[in-house]
Amino acid sequence: MSDDSPLLSPEEHVLSTLNQDGSRRWVRPRIVHGKWWKRRAVVAWALILLFNILPWVQIAGKPLLRLDVVAREFTFFTVTFRPTETLLLTLLLLTVFFGIFLMTALFGRVWCGWGCPQTVYLEYLFRPLEKWIAGPNLAKGKPVPIERRVMSIVLCGLVCLHLAHTFLAYFVGPQEVLQWSLSSPSEHPAGFAIVMGVTALMMFDFLYFREQMCILACPYGRLQSVLLDRKSLIVGYDEKRGEPRGKLSKKGAAEGAAPQGDCIDCGWCSAVCPTGIDIRNGLQMECIHCTECIDACDAVMDKVGKPRGLIRYSSQDGLEGGKMGFLRPRTLLYPLVLVVIISLFAWQLTGLESATLLPRRVQGQPYTKLEDGRIQTTVAFSLENRSEETRTYQIASDDERFELRAPTFPMKVGPGESRDFVVVVLAPLEVYDRGKAEVPFRFTDGVDFDHPMPRNVPGPYSVSR
Q1: What are phi and psi of 33, to 5 degrees?
Q2: What is the average pLDDT across 207-224?
Q3: How far is CA 97 from CA 104, 215, 335, in A?
Q4: How many CA atoms lie less than 13 Å away from 183 in the CB half-sphere?
Q5: Which residue of 86, 284, 358, 451 has the fewest CB atoms within a 10 Å radius of its CB?
Q6: What pLDDT is attached to residue 10?
Q7: Residue pLDDT, tens place only, 373-420
Q8: Alpha-carbon gap, residue 390 to 417, rounded angstroms
């Protein structure tokens, strides 16, 4: 920015990917194949393999994981949930949230560096693919030939297209996606639009937006101030050991000079960082705990003959000379809450029946008095078959004083289907008390669904006893 500009220059970088003049600072991290990189590579490729094969896995004819939005069925580990089971879905979400809280309190942002799809695919698939095609010019910051850039975009686009098809398979099933991919897009325009949209979003993210997703869009980094504490595991720089930093002199320290720390200010920890930060500036929102700086610093320490661990896994207290400990109030409270939630979830899950029966409101006249003196009332229900086969349902009453007229019964309901129906109840006047009578309905399917449901039906508000 020129001296005569009316705008003030910032004293430092506002973001690690933003230059002082407001332009984007492109991050092209180098790679050091240290022990942590290799460990993350094993985890990353295992997750990539899992993502591609999970839609195909079935147990007892049911998918291991399926999010069928159209049919409103969500299958997790062969157990199918429906939107009407709000308590189960709420408990499942609470389990996920508190699991994240516990994991972060113990191990920091291990999810970001080891398990997040953004990190896994960008660092172990797209960036290596781009570097392999572009050649050494990319690493040196030199212009890449246009034909290599086009080849890189096309190849990355094909990878995104495959990932988009796999993503769709989690919602409609892999066989359906395979059939769609071999037919004309006009036969399944919605599926085609979803695949194209997801492919375009992935290409924008992995080819352009990249680390900006972690820095600008993802809220997880901004939540770490409340999810972490001073004993949480982080990737940190040992300032006591490393400072004051300075270039390594071949002649050694001059006589009378101030002692120098182990950090030789080589800049490798910043050169390998996928978000472009300097880990020596302390705990930062942009740090995703990918351990690239640990491998880089350990390699430099080996070359200069100094012990490893200048940058290492530790905690804020540990880096300042304090003790590291896993036991503290939040790491005891989170597991306790998780045990309660999981116990409630298991209890609710074991109590699931093969069908769900809910009463419905009936519009119109609440009752009619017949010529024979009996009261005729109409009640309504909604029945959902939660089993994997067609069931035939029957309705009856355990009280002989009530006559039930249900023309739709016996009623066949297909797997996963829901049917609304009405039942006409005829009862003598004397069974009513203060305008209501409790009718003991019983619904059965002849297999494992035997559901008694007492139901109050309206009647006359003045009763002669």
Answers
A1: -85, 65
A2: 88
A3: 11, 21, 12
A4: 12
A5: 86
A6: 56
A7: 888 888 888 888 877 788 888 888 888 888 888 888 888 988 878 888
A8: 9
Q: Rounded to 5 degrees, what angle do the CA atoms 249, 255, 261 make?
A: 50
State which H helix or E strand residue 442 sits in. strand 436-444
Q: Which tens digits make up the pLDDT trace of 219-230?
A: 887 887 678 888
For residues 220 and 99, give the distance between their C-alpha atoms in angstroms, rounded to a whole number: 14
Could you tell me which residues come within 8 angstroms of residue 416 by beta carbon, excluding any fewer than 6 positions away?
71, 73, 80, 384, 385, 386
- Name all contacts of 122-126 with Cβ < 8 Å and 24+ positions apart: 122/206, 122/210, 122/211, 122/274, 123/40, 123/44, 123/274, 123/290, 124/40, 124/41, 124/44, 124/45, 124/48, 125/48, 125/159, 126/156, 126/159, 126/206, 126/207
> Domain spanning 355-458 has what CATH number?
2.60.40.10
434 in Cβ contact with 461 (< 8 Å): yes
Domains in the chain: boundaries: 24-56+108-321, 355-458
Three-state DSSP state, 351: coil
Q: Are strands 375-385 and 65-68 parallel, antiparallel or unpaired?
A: unpaired
Q: How many residues does the chain have?
A: 465
Mean pLDDT for all residues in the chain: 86
Contact present, 279 and 287 (Cβ < 8 Å)? yes
Q: What one-character DSSP code corresponds to residue 312?
A: E
Q: How far is CA 305 from CA 37, 248, 250, 252, 319, in A?
A: 22, 12, 13, 13, 22
Q: How many whole angstroms separate alpha carbon 360 and alpha carbon 379?
A: 8
- Separation between Cα atoms, residue 107 and residue 356, nearest integer Å: 42
CB-CB contact of 381 with 358 (8 Å): yes
What is the value of pTM for the model shown? 0.80
Distances from the Cα of 396 to the Cα of 134, 141, 247, 287, 442, angstroms: 74, 80, 89, 65, 5
Put residue 77 in one of left, alpha, beta given phi > 0 → left and psi -120 to 50 → alpha. Answer: left
Q: In sequence order, what DSSP letters do the residues of 362-382 get, joined into one string?
A: --S-S-EE-TTS-EEEEEEEE
Rounded to a whole number of angstroms, the CA Rg of the chain reads 32
Residue type (1 letter), 166: T
Measure Cα distances from 450 to 243, 283, 350, 390 in Å: 74, 59, 16, 16
Q: Which residues does 178 contact at the CB level (< 8 Å), separation at least 6?
A: none
Burial 191-207 (b: 16+ CB within 10 A, else e): bbebbeebbeebbebbb
What letter does residue 281 receive in the DSSP assignment? G
